[in-house]
Design brief:
By secondary structure, the chain is an alpha/beta fold. It has two domains: 278 residues, P-loop containing nucleotide triphosphate hydrolases (Rossmann fold), CATH 3.40.50.300; 31 residues. The chain is 53% helix and 10% strand. Strand 3 and strand 4 form a beta hairpin.
Length: 397
């Protein structure tokens, strides 16, 4: 039986880590009967910043490179209007490639966390169902779920860091239509929609709980492999560094404010955003947060989570066969609030990091300019005439 496993997210549940893990382990997966391959066309503009050995932010993936890590991108395409024709062309290309991969084995893996958020944008889910039915393929959906307040907290930080967000967290959370439609925070609605297309038993939710995994000696990689029916990550290559570095609480607030200076969607705005982001990551590495803080106090978390209580219970009972979706217990997190003392220190670090970046870029530009001058045609001609003149002088002497 041919099975197409599709990892759909959700965002902010270790997707980037898994997308570093899968390409590293294509051969190990193949030996166990699973096919993971890259798509031969470009991903849309996406950059991931990580810290190098010297603590500087470096670009892990730049626009225009093959979409190795997100080979399921073609199943939702670009979200902007006007890309319908291109998206449908890519969809057809992608499905044909998936079909060819099944000639290598009975199990194929696709991954893209925005398949969760963009599920209802196009008619691609229905087209996938028709494709699967026509070729006798079973589609299984793997999705990691975390408590909704935690999901939104993490998503907010990422949007500030990478997507020009200037909203305060309160303003961000008040955009309820966006939360419902884009983030699909009411998990049961999206799971039911997927189940209606691919079958209830083919929806495979996983509770995202790194602390519990660590206590049990597990990682997100071993948990993911377990969903595939692989009982151990022995023999697999594990990524070393975090796939997606985070800003500290205060650096997130600094970037939220500096985002007001940027023009989203322009080359200048994008370049400035990356510049600010590198400074924030550099400063964050030198003054990491001590203990996790959140944007909601316990009362706020409880109130926010309560609206999903019934749906979460259904997910637990109907999809996982357990009483509760998320474990209830004391939350030791402290609510983040601006603090003049620590913020002052982090502002100094941030602007110091900006200055260091400027110095490094100026240094690199000077070095590149020197290389250009050294190897320029005019410079070569000058050196050639200098050698000719020196030879003439030696002959006359």
């Amino acid at each position: 039986m041919k099975t197409l496993y599709i990892h759909v997210g959700t965002p902010k549940t270790g997707s980037s880590a898994l997308q570093k893990f899968l390409p590293k382990n294509q051969e190990a997966l193949f030996q166990r009967g699973f096919i993971y391959r890259k798509m031969p066309y470009d991903d849309y503009a996406r950059e991931t910043f990580v810290l190098d050995e010297e603590g500087r932010a470096a670009v892990e993936k730049t626009p225009g490179k093959p979409a190795m890590s997100r080979n399921g991108f073609f199943l939702h395409g670009k979200v902007y209007k006007g890309y319908e024709e291109e998206n449908n062309k890519r969809l057809q290309q992608g499905l044909e490639l998936v079909l060819s991969w099944f000639s290598e084995g009975d199990n194929v893996i696709l991954t893209d966390e925005h398949l969760w958020t963009d599920f209802s944008l196009w008619d691609f889910p229905e087209k996938l169902r028709s494709f699967a039915a026509a070729h006798d393929i079973t589609v299984k959906i793997i999705v990691f779920l975390r408590p909704q307040y935690d999901y939104m907290d993490s998503h907010y930080r990422e949007d500030v860091k990478s997507h020009f967000c200037t909203f305060t967290f309160r303003e961000y959370m008040e955009r309820k239509p966006v939360l419902d439609e884009l983030f699909a925070v009411d998990y049961v609605k999206r799971l039911d929609a997927m189940a209606s297309l691919y079958g209830h038993d083919n929806i495979l939710p996983v509770v995202y709980d790194p602390k519990a995994w660590s206590r049990d000696g597990k990682t997100i990689f071993s948990v993911f492999l377990g969903v595939l029916g692989i009982d151990s990550d022995e023999g697999f290559l594990l990524p070393g560094k975090p796939a997606n570095e985070s800003l500290t609480d205060n650096q997130t607030e600094i970037m939220r404010v500096t985002n007001r200076l940027l023009d989203p969607g322009t080359e200048a705005g994008n370049n400035a955003s990356r510049f600010f982001q590198r400074a924030g990551l550099f400063a964050s590495a030198r003054r990491p947060d001590k203990g996790k803080k959140t944007y909601l106090d316990q009362e706020g978390k409880t109130a926010f989570q309560k609206q999903f209580e019934e749906g979460n219970k259904r997910v637990a009972e109907e999809y996982l066969g357990q009483e509760e979706l998320f474990q209830k217990g004391a939350d030791s997190a402290i609510r983040w609030e601006p603090d003049a003392g620590p913020m002052q220190e982090e502002l100094i670090l941030y602007f110091g990091a900006l200055t260091r970046q400027l110095y490094e870029e100026i240094h690199d530009l000077k070095r590149e300019n020197a290389e250009i001058v050294r190897y320029s045609i005019g410079n070569r001609i000058c050196r050639l005439f200098s050698r000719i003149l020196r030879r003439k002088k030696r002959k006359k002497g």
